[in-house]
Amino acid sequence: MASRVLRIGLIPGDGIGREVIPAGRRILEALPSSLGLKFEFTDLQAGFETFEKTGAALPDKTVEILKNECNGALFGAVSSPSKVVKGYSSPIVALRKKLDLYANVRPVKTVLTAAKPIDMVIVRENTEDLYVKEERTLDDPAYGGKYAEAIKRISARASSRIATMAGEIALRRQSLRANGVSSIHKAPLVTITHKSNVLSQTDGLFRSTAREALAAPRFSGTVNVEEQIVDSMVYKLFRQPEAYDVIVAPNLYGDILSDGAAALVGSLGLVPSANVGEGFAIGEPCHGSAPDIMGQNIANPIATLRSTALMLEFLGAEEAAARIYAAVDGNLEEGRLLSPDLGGKATTEEVVQDILRRL
Ligand code: ATP
Ligand code: MG
Fold first, then answer.
1. Radius of gyration of the CA atoms of the chain, in A
2. Where is each Isopropylmalate dehydrogenase-like domain found (predicted)?
3. Of the residues 74, 88, 293, which should be mutated to test ligand 1's pocket, given the most ligand atoms within 8 Å of the CB?
4. Which ipTM score applies to this complex?
5. Relative to the alpha carbon of 262, which ligand is closest?
6. Which residues contact 292 (CB under 8 A, 6 or more apart)?
7. Which of 4, 24, 154, 339 has the fewest beta carbons under 10 Å from its own?
């Protein structure tokens, strides 16, 4: 059988990004050849140190190579300067725009033996809502003087495509379960989050469009669909997190919910994410550059390994993704070789080796 070649850009960035991104490469290289995949890697620059060296946090060359030569990428972390630095802006935010990565996908999962097991994915729309950043400051005696306002823009097109992606993720999670990935869920469920009781036009449009998209023939009868107003969603997310499988939300609620959900699992070192567009995905651990632990070989590589699997899911390599997820779950369930953020004593290298062995 001819192998499918996937070209992956590697952008370690700053801090522990440089310690964990190599683990992503190694797990891809360790996948059994029977899966029919071959990987080619390109090392790419971005981040604060790149900015200090070259004057650009995201060099044009990095964007061009990603666009023209890569199927996907792994992005480590960039350190955020403590003060505003002139000319510096976040390279990952710029990449999302330049590559039209319209979805941010964040799976949040604990071991199934936990007292309150969690296994959900938050799918956040990433191009509009209040994040169009159309703000202005005005002055009017009617408001007692100075006031400010911002546009919340919601389109049917963006709402429909994000809801469709959520439906597809719910279906794929079902087939990952069939491929041996452990889960607390039996049937696919998508929860649409909004505040349409107050914002009947903007969130109302998100809600009705998402409903419509999820009523498509390939979902109906298989994917269950429910709605939850965002404030009661937060309440239930903390009280009863096991109730959620896939959550789809407009940009702002998605941002808040995904950080809130990440807090439920104990360490940032476990939580992956992906930035996804048409036929392209960047896997990115949720954590930052963690300057407090950098250079000590103790960063937890699991967020990156899971981000690598998540990237593969969107590149159509589901079986390979399932292998990685199962190997990571195996390491966590056994609990013998854990990094210090999880209360263990293992180094980054020992955790990586244990997971590679399970692969
Ligand atoms: P940045 O400005 O780059 O976001 P930060 O100081 O906010 O850096 P984070 O990377 O966001 O740091 O991490 C927050 C905390 O979680 C830190 O104490 C860090 O050590 C810890 N942490 C983050 N990622 C990991 C990881 N992979 N393994 C272990 N601990 C981690
Ligand atoms: Mg941070």
1. 20
2. 7-355
3. 293
4. 0.96
5. 1
6. none
7. 4
Mind listing the pLDDT tens digit of every residue in the chain (359 residues)?
678 999 999 999 999 999 999 999 999 999 999 999 999 999 999 999 999 999 999 999 999 999 999 999 999 999 877 778 888 888 998 999 999 999 999 999 998 888 889 999 999 999 999 999 999 999 999 999 999 999 999 999 999 999 999 999 999 999 999 999 999 999 999 999 999 999 999 999 999 999 999 999 999 999 999 999 999 999 999 999 999 999 999 999 999 999 899 889 989 999 999 999 999 999 999 999 999 999 999 999 999 999 999 999 999 999 999 999 999 999 999 999 999 999 999 999 999 999 999 99
Q: Measured between alpha carbons, how far apart are the two ends of the chain, in Å?
A: 21
Ligand having the closest approach to the CA of 16: 1
Sequence-distant (6+) residues with CB within 8 A of 114 are none
Closest atom of ligand 1 to 301 CA is 27
The structure tokens listed for 119 are: 């296994």
Nearest-CA residue for ligand 1 atom 6 is 290
* Chain position carrying tokens 């239930």: 236
Pocket of ligand 1 (CB under 6 A): 15-16, 77, 79-80, 267-269, 287-293, 299-300, 303, 341
> Residues with Cβ < 8 Å from 112, sequence gap 6 or more?
119, 182, 183, 184, 329, 333
Task: List the residue whose alpha carbon is closest to atom 15 of ligand 1.
Answer: 290
Structure token digits, residue 302 = 């699991």
**Structure tokens that stand for 348 in this block:** 């980054």
Angle at 353 between CA 274 and CA 283, to 5 degrees: 10
CA dihedral 213, 235, 270, 324 (to 10 degrees): -40
User: Is the pTM value of this prediction over 0.90?
Assistant: yes
At 232, the amino acid letter reads: S
What is the residue with the minimal CA distance to atom 17 of ligand 1? 290
Residue keyed to tokens 């499988």: 245
CA 234 – CA 338 distance, rounded (Å): 30
